[in-house]
Design a protein that fits this description.
By secondary structure, this protein is α+β, with helices and mostly antiparallel strands. It contains two helices and five strands; from the N terminus they run ββαβαββ.
């Protein structure tokens, strides 16, 4: 079982998750390190593919903490619907989707294959806030219930 930290705090004027009907939209989350700070750097220059996958998994852990905080329990998640992953990448880096597998594999681990596998886009960026390795946002289908 994945151990979740406390949900991160927004660093600007936004919320970590917003609900519209039975959909929960998450803000972009970054690869928060358990000891504090973030995984920073460009894939293909400063970070290896494996370090990128780890960063994407850490991003997923942070996001799940926010989802749990918003819903009261991850048991209210029906399925992961859509994922957008942005990878801070050197111009010649082309393995963006492989980086995002760190996030996707975690979602399957937590929600099982059918509910944890989503439509997904993985794109490279010239830069991301504070130089983080990746930023991921997602949409979850959820059910009502008492938190």
């Amino acid at each position: 079982m994945v151990r979740l930290p406390e949900a991160p705090k927004p660093v600007a004027t936004y919320v970590l998750a917003a609900r519209g009907g039975n959909l929960l939209f998450t803000a972009g989350h970054g690869p928060a390190l358990p000891e504090g700070g973030y995984v920073q750097g460009k894939l293909g220059r400063d970070l290896t593919l494996e370090e990128g996958r780890r960063a994407a998994r850490l991003t997923g852990i942070s996001m799940l903490a926010s989802v749990r905080s918003e819903l009261g329990s991850l048991d209210r998640v029906v399925r992961l619907v859509k994922v957008l992953g942005m990878v801070n990448a050197a111009p010649d880096f082309t393995q963006h989707s492989q980086v995002l597998n760190g996030f996707s594999d975690l979602m399957v681990e937590v929600f099982a294959k059918e509910a944890g596998t989503a439509a997904r886009s993985a794109v490279g960026m010239g830069s991301l806030p504070i130089g983080i390795a990746c930023e991921i946002e997602a949409v979850f289908e959820v059910v009502d219930g008492c938190p």
